[in-house]
Amino acid sequence: MSPGTGAALRMLAASVDAKAVAEIGTGTGVSGIHLLHGMRPDGVLTTVDPEPEHQQFARQAFRACGFASNRARFIPGRALDVLPRLADAGYDLVFCDGDRLEFLDYLAESLRLLRPGGLVVFEGVFANGRTVDSGPQPTEVIRIRELLRAVRESQELVPSLLPVGDGLLCAVKR
């Protein structure tokens, strides 16, 4: 994640006064650290990843940054298996950085998870510039294009595409 993307995540979390954030794709915790810095001091990050090792790295990174252990909830598993168990309208922000082939499914789950005025954010929507290239593209790029179209056409969302890092697609739920 680029520094600009991290700064944007921090600002987005602060802009919705985030107390509850769901993150799809824990990774090594870099995005989670930025989100936690932007969240309210009593906020909790719920982060989902199929790799328990990733979550262990993130747990150590959060601790090294001084975050109390109760600021993050780690749930191992596939996002599409875990997300249905999370509370309807219980989140201020959903950050999606998981399997790009599942982005449209993440969008559907995010709309259920978000409170009105909440924000969904997708990372990597430029796909290293491939989303605007003409010609045949891999399935991942086709899925990202479908996501971009769905968000743009949704009456339930107010979208914006931020040109930081590899592209952040942001949308506020009406």
Structural class: alpha/beta
Show unreliable segments: none
Overall mean pLDDT stands at: 96
N/C terminus separation:
28 Å
The CATH superfamily is identified as: Vaccinia Virus protein VP39
- Strand order, sheet with most strands: 3-2-1-4-5-7-6
Task: Summarize this structure as a short list of keywords or feature phrases.
25% strand, alpha/beta, Rossmann fold, 174 residues, 6 helices
Question: Can you describe what's shown?
Answer:
The protein is an alpha/beta fold and 174 residues long. The chain has six helices and seven strands, in the order H-E-H-E-H-E-H-E-H-E-H-E-E. The protein has a single domain (3-173), classed as Vaccinia Virus protein VP39 (Rossmann fold). Strand 1, helix 2 (30-38) and strand 2 (44-49) form a beta-alpha-beta unit. Helices cover 37% and strands 25% of the residues.
Quickly describe the structure.
This protein is an alpha/beta fold.
How is the secondary structure organized here?
Elements: H1 3-15, E1 20-24, H2 30-38, E2 44-49, H3 52-64, E3 72-76, H4 79-82, E4 91-96, H5 103-113, E5 114-123, H6 139-153, E6 157-162, E7 168-173
Parallel strand pairs: 1-2, 1-4, 2-3, 4-5
Antiparallel strand pairs: 5-7, 6-7
